[in-house]
Structure formats: C-alpha cells, structure tokens
Amino acid sequence: MIKIKELNISNWGPITERRLEFKPLTIIFGENEKGKTSIVEAMAECLGNLFSTNLSDKIGARKDNEFQGIAKLSVLCNNKPFLLNNVKKSRKTKCIDIEPWIYRLFISRAGDLNIHTDSNITSYLQKLAMPERFLEWEVLKGTGSVRLSESNEITGNKTGQYKLLIQLREKLSSIEKALEIFDTVCLSKAFALEREKELLSNRLNQIKQDKLIYAKHLKKQIMELQTQLEDIKEETIDALKAIFLQMQTIERQVSEKERDLDTIAFSEKKLQQLEAILNEWEGLNAKPHTLSLTLSVILGISAIAAIYFLKGLSGVFSGIILSAGALLLAFLSGRRLFSKRKEQKLIDTIKQLTNMQLNSPKQLSAIIEREKENKIKQESISQSLNNLLSELDKLKADTLKFGIEPDRIGEKINALSRERTTVLEKLNKLKVEFARLNVSQEDLDSVSDDLFAEFSFEEESDIEKRISDLEERLQASKEELRNKLNEACRLTGVEYSNRIKNIFLSIQELKEETEKEMQALLKDLISKIMWNKVKNARIKKASEIAQQILNSDVFQRNLSAFTGNKYEGWKFSISNGLKLYLDAEERDFHLLSSGAQQQILLALRVSILEHQLGKSFIVLDDILQFTDYQRRPYAIKTLLNAVKNGWQVIYLSMDNHILSLFKEYVKKEKVETNIIEL
C-alpha cells in the first residue's frame, strides 16, 4: 500500500517553488501551461526511486524535457515513511518490486482510458493470470535441447532453426516496441487534443447560434424602443417647452404689473375727497381777504370822518362812530380766527389721507395732480394686466389640448424629457451592441422569434483563442507523433502512411505473420500434438485464472462501485475477450458506449492495483474532461466513494465545471480534501 503525503518542487517547468500537501482526495486545478503535467512528471521521477523501474518512462513523461529542477516526494509505503527525490541513483530505496506493466496503472492521462482496446484488456488480464512474457515459455522450458532462462534468452543449440527462432524473437520484440507507440501518451495526447478541439468547435458553433438568437432579441428590443420613442416626439416636448417658457414669461410680467399696481395704490374716493378739500380750502382763503379789504376801506373812511367830525361835531357823535369802528374791528378779528381753525381742520384731514403735512392749497393741488397721473397709470397697467391674463388663459388651454394640467406642465416636460433621454440611451446602447454582433438580416431571418439565449463576447473570444492555441499544440503533437510513427516504421520495416490506422494494421498484420512463422517453426521443433495441448492448456488455464480474479471481491466490488451496480459481473477468456453481464445477458465490451467503457476501464485499473498492491494512490489527469455533463456527477461520486473506501485519489483538471462538482459533492460527502489552485 502506497500513499503520497507531500511534494516539494523547485525550478520545474513553469513552477519556481511549490509545496503540495496531499490528502485522501487532492484536486490540483489550473489552466494549460500552469504546471499540472510538471507535477505529475516530478512525482514520477521521484517514484522511480521507489520501484525497480523508472515510473516516468512508463507514464510517457516528456523525453525532450531536461529536468534541471529538484523534486522531493514524501510517501508512506506499507506504513513506512520514505523521502524520495529525482536524483538518478541506484534503486536500493525501493520498498516494493512489481511487474513493469503495472506502473502505467498508477497515473492516467486524459483520453488514456479510452485507447485501451480489447487486445490491451486481454494482454493485461493474461499478464495478471500468468506473468510470463511469451506463450512458448512453458513449451520450451525443460525440453532437451532448448531452454528459456529467466531473462528470456534461448540457450543451447543455436544453429539452424534455433537461429531462425532467435531472429524471429528479436523481430517480434521490435514489433511489440512499435505497437507500444500506439499506447503512449503521445498518441493519447494527440487524440485528446483532437477531441478537445472538436468539443471547443462545437461550443463555438453553439455560441455563434446563441449570438444570432441574442441579435434577434436585440433587434426586437430596438424596434420596441423606436416605437416608444415615436410616442415621445421631440417636437412635442419642444412645443410644450415653448408654451411653458411663454407662461413663465407672462406670469412674471403679471407679477410685475401687480407689484406696479400695489406701488401706485390709487383710490378714486381719495381723489374726490382731496379735490373737495382743495375747493373748500381755496374758498376759505378768498372770503376773508375780500371782507378784510372792504372793512379796511370803511374803517379808513370812518377814521377820516371821525377826525373831521371831531373837529366839527360834537363829542357824542364822534364816540358813536368810534364805537362802530371798534365793533367792526372786533367782528373782523373773530372772523379771521374762525377761518384759521377751519383751515387747520382741513390740513389735519389731508394728513390723514396722504400722511403728509401740507401748508397751502398749492401743495394740495400738486398732490391732486399726481393722483390723477396715478389714475391714468393704474388704468394703463390694469389694461395690460388683463391682456396678459387673457394670453395666459389661451396658453393654459393649449396645454389642456396635450392632456396636461397647466400647473403641472413643468413637471410633465421634465418627466417626458427624462423618459426620452432614457429611451435614447437604451436605444443607442442596444444599437452599439447589435453592431458589434455583425450579423446579416438573412441570418436573423433564419432564427425563430420565440427563442432567447445569453451571449458573451468574452467567451467567444476566449474559445477562438483556445482553438488557435490548440491548433498550435496539435501541430506540435502531430509532429511528435509523426516522429514516433517513423520510429515504429523503422523498427518494423512497414511503409509510412499518413493514416495511423493503416500503419497500425500493417504492423498488426506483420506481427500475426511473424507469430505464425514462429508457431510454424515451433511446431517443427515440438510435435503438433504437444504444441496444441500445451497451448490450449495454457490459454484455458490463463482464462480460468483471469476469470477467478475477475470474480474476486475486489474486482466485483469495484465494478459495482464504478458502474453504479449496473452490471452483474464480467466474463473473460483470452480467445473471446471481455464481456459484461447486464440483465443476465452478455454484452461485448467493445460494443458498449464510450462512457460505459471508461467506467469499466477505470474499475479494472483500480481493481488490478488493489489486487497487486492493496488500496494505494491513483493519479487521474483530467480523465473526465471529455465525459458528457450528465455522467460527470456520478463519476465524481464514484471517485469519492473510492476515497471513503481507502483509496488516495489525486485529480488534475483545468475544467471549472468539474472543479465545482467536486466542491459540491465533497461538502455533501464530508471527504477530507485539499484543493490546490495553480
């Protein structure tokens, strides 16, 4: 049992310095070129010091990468701690010795599970049943003239047919090396990139369709806003504004006229009172003056007469005349006094009316003239005010034609202006957005009006960039693959072809021919009866052992766990391959769906590891990346069940959807997890 505890790496690929702690479930998340592959390769390099063979060679680590960095890996092997590093040295630190073909099961890359054909499964189960490499091992073992040592080298007589056998063995070995190329990371990487490009292209096509639907939706909104804008004409708002400005101007002029009227404060009654007072005042001043003049003349004549009479008349008559003059003088003095009091009363009345102290009728006359002028002004202002009010009433009537109360016209204008501005802003924004979509009317006509879809320029740009990057990586991967295929052709002498399938079939055909030739040669060396007997016995024995292993609790439990109890069991024979029991019927493995094959292969991978080593660790490099969205939740719950049953799962991904599913189900299942984001 092997569990990984901690990895420290520095200057490895894009990673400068990083410490990673591993839990029963560890999720390593990051985009391309963030260092996920570098982490796997660093782990493989360190684990090479734990096993008898370098694990990085078995998982297909990049050969062209000269590892200049340092990696240190802390593991528990059978509950004993080991600290491993990537330094090339002797394998004395290994804690376990297992068959080399098992190494590739520890680490699975994206798409790797999908390239295991029936022949791969047969080979794995046959090796699990009988680890010996060649079928003729038991045939040749113990024969008199030919023996097979533990290193699979033929000893004994090497002349004649035995030399030919050795040559055929060497040729078959080269063919097997060539066939291994078709089960390498290089090939799976190319297939994975092709598949990823296909998925991204499909997504891009869906986005372009969503763009058309979104554009149709925008077009519909634009037409609705344009209709709404027609209901809020700018001419109507301008007409209302003109009426409103005229009303404001007239109301301001009315206020000014009213203030002018308040300033004048003319009163017809007051004017009449002042004119009456003036007449009375002027009458008082005229009468005393005439009387005084007349009496003065009489008094003067009387005085002259008195003097005359005093000389000639007697004293009595003179006294009478003087007395009459004195009485007349007294009467005149009283009359003057009465006029003064009347005049003062008039002055007091004037003061009450005008708040002014006047001393002469002339001053009062000036005030009366001013009042008459005010009367004329008041009549003029009143006429202007009436005209303004009449014009204002007409403007109010015009506002009512628009269905607006006159006292709310300003508020209505502001509301209409804001509404039109808002509609215009929305319309312009939608027009800019629609122009960015750059779609034709013909394309729009092909979309139904009832559909709606969200669209993101960022996602479209991101996917186009990712497809461009994938094409570059795919080109590099294909170049690497061509080199590998050239190597396979060199090893086997098969003619190179641009079709991988043709090369593979040619090498397979060459292998079959070589094996037939070897079998024919062996039949000459060993009797036909013995050959068939040993061959059939070995095939039968290997099939029986493999079936026993498949029927074991480990394999049955994992089959149920990773397929959701869908299959009752599995059946295997070297001649007929792998079959699954579904509803008591046998189903050929290669006829199942790709998703079902992936689940079964993962169950087989885990079962072989558990059968050989117990529940250990398994590294899954985005194996669910190309799984449809409906299968992902079940696959993730299956992995979590494996963790709860004692497995350590290290999952690397660049898919946000897979990461979100892990987070959701980890929280529900309460699995100890470490999520590492690069």
Can you describe what's shown?
- The chain has 678 residues and is an alpha/beta fold.
- Among the domains are: 1-106 and 653-678, Rossmann fold (3-Layer(aba) Sandwich), CATH 3.40.50; 266-359.
- It has 19 helices and 14 strands.
- It has helices spanning 36-47, 55-58, 118-129, 137-140, 161-180, 185-231, 234-264, 268-312, 315-354, 361-401, 409-437, 441-445, 457-492, 500-525, 528-551, 553-563, 594-613, 632-644, 656-669, and strands spanning 2-12, 15-21, 25-29, 70-77, 80-85, 107-108, 146-148, 154-156, 569-573, 577-582, 585-588, 617-621, 648-653, 673-677.
- A five-stranded parallel β-sheet has the order 6-12-13-3-14, sandwiched between helices. It has a four-stranded antiparallel β-sheet with strand order 2-1-4-5. The protein has a three-stranded antiparallel β-sheet with strand order 9-10-11.
- A hairpin with a 2-residue loop joins β1 (2-12) and β2.
- α8 packs antiparallel against α9 and α16 (553-563) runs antiparallel to α18.
- The longest helix is centred in the first third of the chain and has 47 residues, at 185-231.
